[in-house]
Amino acid sequence: MTTKINHFDKNVTITHIGGLFKGSLAKIWSINVQCSPKQEKKFTNFSNAAMLIRGKKLNCNERQLSHPNMVIALSEQNQLIPSFLRDFIELSTDPKLEYFEGIQTSFILKRPSQVTVHIPQFELARTLFLINSYFCRASLSTTTIQHEFEVITNDDGVEIVFLENNTMPLKLVRQKGTQSLLAWLLLDPNAKQSFESICLHFNTQLKDENGWKKWIFRFDPPPMNGWSLHCRGRYNSTQDAFLVEEIIGIEIDTDIPTDITFNHPSFIQVNKDGGQSGQGYKPEYSETLDPEIEDDATASNQQGIRILNGNESWVSFIKPLEIKKKGTVQITGQKTEDGNDENELDSGHLVSTDEAHSAGDLPAADVGGKKDYTNYDQKYANRYDDFNSMIKILQSNHQCKLHESITHELIKIGRSQCHAISRDKLRTIKFVHLSYQGHDFLLIELDTSDGIKSISTKLVYLTLDDWKIYLDDIKKHLVAKSLSWPNVIFDEVFGSNAHTHIVHPRHSSSESDSSESVNSWANRIINELNRLL
Hints:
The chain is of the alpha/beta class. The chain is built from ten helices and 30 strands. It has helices spanning 95-102, 121-128, 133-139, 144-148, 176-187, 189-205, 385-398, 471-480, 487-494, 511-532; strands at 4-5, 12-23, 30-36, 43-45, 57-58, 70-73, 81-84, 105-109, 116-120, 149-154, 157-162, 207-209, 212-215, 228-235, 241-252, 259-271, 292-293, 299-309, 314-317, 322-331, 350-351, 362-368, 371-372, 401-409, 420-422, 425-426, 428-436, 439-446, 457-461, 499-502. The strands form seven sheets. Strands 6, 7, 8, 9, 14, 15, 19 and 23 form an eight-stranded mixed β-sheet that branches. Helix 5 (176-187) packs across helix 6 and helix 7 (385-398) packs across helix 10 (511-532).
């Protein structure tokens, strides 16, 4: 499914993202957008900001995966200096477009013996805060976040309470990346101050001219020591300056508490036979087929909120956050609503990302989202004892070089329960990138500690550098296909002859037998790898 914006042609490339504006009688803030080929329409709603990325296509029929060509590691010595995009030479070959692009705000990053980096302020804010329609609207308000959430600190940890007047669509909470960014925004004073600076600059710099209110986006970034930005962009002809067009992923280092509870009465905790409540929750993730956003219509709250995917960006927290959900306890056997709207697909494909109300014209939608790429390697290390031992044998006995080890949690897909090993514990998957005799390969191990299914280790001969952009596809298909390897994806991405499976060792109560079986496991991997090379 690809989200489209009405009245733009198909497959048009964004060449300019400008300032915000609103007519004297309008209720919705718009943002200037120009595309190639040139379009009659030159704006969209600000609530669609998550979709607006320089160099990406609007209304594209195919999925767009971005490939980073620069990773920016930030330290205490690095300062983001406020500036304007015109300071990047060769901004555009179109003089008129170059002027309007040039007056947009940016941050300049200068580092010794490295290229000067120009980061559009809108793009950095889009990555951190403007991740969906709700946060876009909230960023222009002084009261939304303050009046819709309460933070309570007690002996059990930190609790974030969704207050009664909260307007954040609960279906967004299913997105792990969105959960983490919301917690960070509410618990990190620097993050909150940075978010609130959007509205501060908006209110102090807003211009009212000839019946139009106008504002060029600006905000104050949070301290970013220890962070990394994974970017796509372009160099100037002399290769001494780089313009960031898209921040594909961001690694955040923060000292907020890692044990967090979200509390909302619409979260349903099922209590079975008087047992402890689980961490399930009521709202279900919902999508329409081929949705199209209509900027000129208002949103109705009578048919629920559609959650639309607006981009493929991700966030990773260096210190993983443990977010639990707390809400209404329900006894098993009571009828529950699953949060789905049965009439969603019958109401047409046009939707509105405006704030929903009872008199709205079209079904309401929220566009955006954020994937969670947080590495849970340390947290779940004990689930992979034998596998980790085998990796060490590959390094010590077979001279394999370890490049990276990543553990991710699986997420719920549809009605499948395969994402969890019990009511309170998520299933995980581990990706280990190694090299052998100069050849890169990937080992993928699925957590089956619940004994529900036996699935072999997946061995993949890596033929591309940006293999991580396909991890979400692998994880989703595993859950949807009842924990079977999605070989169709491996065939399409890596090649039909570039992957195989390695049978697990048999468990033994004898320590010597167990050690021998793990050694045999490593040997089988080397043998199969030699066959693939």
